[in-house]
């Protein structure tokens, strides 16, 4: 899929890419002039021209959210919301309501209707960080969202349309998790339509001077 995307004739890739790509006004930028980062910049440029689901992987701290923000803020939906969710930081019993929202009276303590992150993202981007931490029942629900582009808030039987682009990220090896039966194989393939692997800084030492200059200018 990655190679096919790179060679689509209707996608125009700038021949000379800058050593950094701003991720939003006043925020950090993706920085690097190594071959690995130039490849990332090229893919970001391609992905701003469509709404494909993207899976960003790499070690903690390599800038996976920066990549997601760059794709969003340089695309046609840049004026729409960018909603980031850390799936590892939300308790398992709350994650469904957090993502899909709930209706008043859906469960004990649901005294009001809650807007979920899918609804809040609107026609923008929903960034699911550490998607590997989703419990298996929620993985099934996310799979349905990707297949049918609809979801149901907790306590509702009325489907809601999903308009947001979904970008997922993980620092775990999802392929290994599939083999261990801790991550759904069908969900993995749905998320992995386009894969971006962000290399750690130790594997692109040539970017260190540029990064140092970038941080000194801040």
3D architecture notes:
With 218 residues, the chain is of the alpha/beta class. Helices cover 34% and strands 16% of the residues. It has 9 helices and 9 strands. The protein is globular and about 55 Å long. The N and C termini lie far apart (37 Å).
Protein topology:
Blueprint: H1 2-6, E1 20-22, E2 29-31, H2 35-47, E3 54-57, H3 64-73, E4 82-86, H4 95-100, H5 117-121, E5 125-129, H6 136-148, E6 150-151, E7 160-161, E8 165-170, H7 174-179, H8 185-191, E9 194-197, H9 208-217
Parallel strand pairs: 3-8, 3-9, 4-5, 5-8
Antiparallel strand pairs: 1-2, 6-7
Helix pairs in contact: 6-8
What is the name of the CATH architecture? Answer: 3-Layer(aba) Sandwich
Distance from first to last alpha carbon: 37 Å
Helix content: 25-40%
- Dominant shape: globular
At CATH level 3, the topology is Rossmann fold
How many DSSP E strands? 9
List its salient traits.
single chain, alpha/beta, five-stranded parallel sheet, Rossmann fold, two-stranded antiparallel sheet, 218 residues
How would you summarize what this structure contains?
The protein is of the alpha/beta class and 218 residues long.
